[in-house]
Amino acid sequence: MRFLWTQSLESTQVLLADYVRNQYTMNMPFVIATREQTKGIGSRANTWDKITCGLYLSCALPITLLPSDLPKQSTSIYFGQILLELLQEFHDGLWLKWPNDFYLQDYKVGGLITQYIREYMVFGIGLNIFSEQQHSLLTNGIPAILQQKEIHKQQDSLESISLWILSAIIKKILHFLSFNIVEFDLQKDMDITTHDFVCKTFLQDTMAWGKILERYKKDFSKNHRFYTHIQEDGYTREISLQHAQLQDDGSIVLHDKILYSLR
């Protein structure tokens, strides 16, 4: 597995996607993360505005690592739910709005984008950790779940705590991918490769699509107060999720139409 950390770049997703397109072979996961994006992208080519502290991370996985029962069109829901469960350690108010947005109560604080390129799947996550102008994990102070862990001292600033959270989230994602990194300095760039990756079927064995979907279903009703964007006939329109019914393949039925997540 390869992990690349850098202080700033245009877009982790664009950089990694270009690498996958141009690389002849890549038999291990590749993760790129940064603390600042200058040209970050999201769903429908939306840009990520600069914030005080954010998580910007993309990962390329050989599709042979994915569960055999995973519907390709629901990859964002699949990895969104997995990442959500990792992120809820830092704020238990987070939930995943269909199909790929991370919400904190009623406000969007992040999102996920997925792409299939050649024999690989590339997902990218953006998350607002701290911002004075936008909603973020620390917009309204330190979450109670973190106060209970006593990870900070009273004199620590929200900026310093947000950097601790950034580092902890990256380590947690790498650990999920079986890449254990003990310490790294956010102030220094790094490029590490390990060749002892052994979890060739870790997703198939422990995180089949059906199991992940069952966990996602528990909070799906929260979607009913919100909207999503659907592309039809070359146009993007906003529709209410009030009567949406989640299906076993991750699609939703709304007004007698079947809608798929293609993000």
Describe the structure.
Helices cover 24% and strands 28% of the residues. The protein has 263 residues and is of the alpha+beta class. The strands form three sheets. The protein has an eight-stranded mixed beta sheet, sandwiched between helices. It has a three-stranded antiparallel beta sheet with strand order 11-12-13, with no helix packed on it. Strands 9-10 form a two-stranded antiparallel sheet. The relative contact order is 0.18. The mean pLDDT is 87.
Summarize the structure.
The protein is an alpha+beta fold and 263 residues long. It has helices spanning 12-22, 75-87, 144-149, 158-176, 202-206, 209-217, and strands at 2-6, 30-34, 53-62, 94-97, 101-104, 107-117, 120-130, 190-193, 227-232, 235-240, 245-246, 252-254, 257-259. Helix 2 crosses helix 6 (209-217).
What ranges have pLDDT less than 50 throughout 5 or more consecutive residues?
none
Order of helices and strands: EHEEHEEEEHHEHHEEEEE
Subunit organisation of the chains: single chain
Cα-to-Cα separation, first versus last residue: 25 Å
What structural class results from the helix and strand content?
alpha+beta
Task: Sketch the major β-sheet.
Answer: 8 strands, mixed
Q: Could you give the order of strands across the largest sheet?
A: 4-5-6-7-3-2-1-8
Number of strands: 13
Integer average pLDDT:
87
Rg over CA atoms, rounded to whole Å, is 18 Å
Strand content: 25-35%
DSSP helix count? Answer: 6
Global geometry: globular
